[in-house]
Amino acid sequence: xxxxxxxxxxxxxxxxxxxxxxxxxxxxxxxxxxxxxxxxxxxxxxxxxxxxxxxxxxxxxxxxxxxxxxxxxxxxxxxxxxxxxxxxxxxxxxxxxxxxxxxxxxxxxxxxxxxxxxxxxxxxxxxxxxxxxxxxxxxxxxxxxxxxxxxxxxxxxxxxxxxxxxxxxxxxxxxxxxxxxxxxxxxxxxxxxxxxxxxxxxxxxxxxxxxxxxxxxxxxxxxxxxxxxxxxxxxxxxxxxxxxxxxxxxxxxxxxxxxxxxxxxxxxxxxxxxxxxxxxxxxxxxxxxxxxxxxxxxxxxxxxxxxxxxxxxxxxxxxxx
Length: 321
Fold this sequence. Notes:
single chain; mainly beta; four-stranded antiparallel β-sheet
């Protein structure tokens, strides 16, 4: 799940009539493309981003959540990389974020918080139609991936405090009843399908720390651990041919692991560190191109902190009233 970086005003008052307050400020992040050596090859823009960012399958457009100061809630925008133009995709009230592209690039599914919970909605990527509800329930949901054949969407949800974050799969056929793919007393989420649709990678803290695992799909079988020394929450990404997974390790290095599937068996290679994600400052990994040569990364610059103001005898005016 992603949250808004917008920081509201803060204050503190003493019993002796002294008031300290700090007005609202907004922290922007810079969206960039990083290659496998950690070299920045392209910088997009500096915006107030929220709710994740995803590349279209052809790598030409980035869908991302942007905090809207006039509305006070995030909307989804589309950034045309070749033309360096951002186009607003959603205009509705409530919070809209965490976009996921369909495999053909024609649709986007996203979370829309209209009431107490985030439901999954779908809309044409060209923006010509209105959003349609894909799945609604009495718990929040965040989509993480879409199978290459377009038949399933993976999403994470907190259904009950006992089971924490659970991993679900939503069929886009039949009665669209969600499948409880992984529901335990541990946190499991961030599901990503292999390109051939036979496996699903995800995060779990079943070992006592967050690691990356793989299970067969669509029938959940025995899991295999991919990471060796912990993983940072965020995303894990398959190469287009299914022979590599990249993710952020606990030490904040972007890591590559080779994958070889032989029938129902997996051969998992050793970790290879590619680059330090935070080399330019606090950063987030959002996506990877299909050839695994480039990564979509947001970098947070130094916070633009507003000064703290002190007011003495502030309660005198209140007492007069």
